[in-house]
Design brief:
mainly alpha; three-stranded mixed sheet; two-stranded antiparallel sheet
């Protein structure tokens, strides 16, 4: 039996390893230069098209749809060489997927190509002081106002907050009491808020 996708995975892994070996400075982090390193690393990952695996082809991605197997291989290889690279890629994927899944066509066209090229860095704001990372317990409020939205609430531990151009947060699910009791949350029940 022939599995051509496995050849593609092997090629991806080899490309990542070769890139990592050519760029050893990215695997050594220096706290005083961390912001510059993170920004440079995101741009490098974008230039090499690794970030393109986090979005579909129609928005600048490599494949027709985002493949979990690709994301796992990339994260595994990046983590092998350094946590900073793995975190940068992982958060980029985390910030991109809610847009891929639930964003409007306008949001997808605006944000996804820049994230795929590493020109913009994504941040993900989920954790709250009282709710932790429990999506059903989020207290953030989003109200439509003239000219946009008013967001009220607080977040903590926002991955990439200091360097991101695109921040994604999840407002509380808009469930009826019956829905809240009957099922775990799903992407269809939440709206993404983009900055």
């Amino acid at each position: 039996m022939n599995f051509p996708e496995l050849d593609q995975i092997d090629e991806l892994r080899a490309h990542l390893r070769a890139w990592s070996e050519r760029n050893p400075p990215f695997w050594q982090t220096h706290q005083e230069k961390l912001e510059d390193q993170v920004t440079s690393l995101a741009h490098q990952l974008g230039e090499e098209r690794f970030m393109s695996y986090v979005v579909p082809r129609s928005y600048g991605g490599i494949r027709e749809t985002v493949q979990a197997r690709d994301l796992c291989v990339i994260r595994e290889e990046l983590a092998h060489f350094g946590a900073l690279a793995d975190v940068m890629f992982g958060v980029q994927a985390l910030a991109s997927q809610p847009i891929v899944i639930g964003g409007t066509e306008e949001q997808k066209k605006k944000y996804l190509p820049l994230l795929a090229r590493g020109e913009n860095i994504g941040a993900f704001a989920l954790t709250e002081p009282e709710a932790g990372s429990d999506v059903a317990a989020i207290s953030l409020r989003v109200n439509k106002v003239s000219g946009g939205y008013c967001i009220t609430g607080s977040k903590k531990f926002i991955s990439n907050a200091g360097v991101a151009q695109v921040t994604l947060s999840l407002p509380p699910p808009t469930w009826t009491p019956r829905e809240r009791e009957s099922a775990p949350w799903s992407w269809r029940r939440i709206r993404s808020v983009l900055r």
